[in-house]
Design brief:
single chain, mainly beta, 10-stranded mixed sheet, 12% helix, globular, binds copper (II) ion
């Protein structure tokens, strides 16, 4: 999918001139209107980080996604502040056993909620740091294939807690 730049900012500026407002450029490269719209189109509920029973093992992240944006978009990556590399995993039947497999990109479509939950889709977080403590919170960034990002704050749970 290609994102076509639109002169939306210029139009806003032109409108603002009538109100004598100065037209200021954001200091950082702004997200395009499309990216902001796509980020708003993603709703993340019930996000939580579950720490491993053994320190140093990967942590897991679960959440419920609903999406109402343009079709053809996937969830491409999930980053966790205080954690290392992340991977999106799923479970699948292989040779009669249920194994963990890589899920590179998770398709999102309107009217089809996607749940990351124990036994199914999950985010594995390598090398969770000591910043991630039970009862604390973690900042999680979800990035879509169109470049839109959504930041959520999730509670951190101990391995033995409810997942
Ligand atoms: Cu996994």
């Amino acid at each position: 999918m290609t994102i076509t730049p639109r002169p939306a900012l210029a139009l806003l500026c032109a409108a603002a001139l009538g109100a004598l407002s100065a037209c200021t450029e954001p200091a950082q490269a702004p997200a395009t209107q499309e990216q902001e719209a796509e980020a708003a189109a993603l709703t993340v509920d019930n996000a939580r980080v579950v720490l491993p029973p053994v320190a140093g093992n990967p942590a897991a992240v679960y959440f419920d996604l609903s999406y109402s944006g343009a079709p053809g978009v996937t969830l491409d990556s999930v980053e966790v502040a205080g954690g290392g590399m992340t991977m999106i995993h799923d479970y699948a039947e292989q040779g009669g056993t249920r194994r963990m497999v890589m899920a590179d990109a998770v398709p999102l479509s309107e009217g089809t909620p996607v749940s990351f939950a124990p036994g199914g889709l999950h985010v594995m977080v390598m090398e969770p740091s000591a910043d991630l403590q039970p009862g604390g919170t973690a900042e999680i960034t979800l990035t879509l294939s169109n470049g839109a990002t959504t930041l959520v704050t999730a509670p951190v749970r101990a391995a033995g807690d409810e997942r």
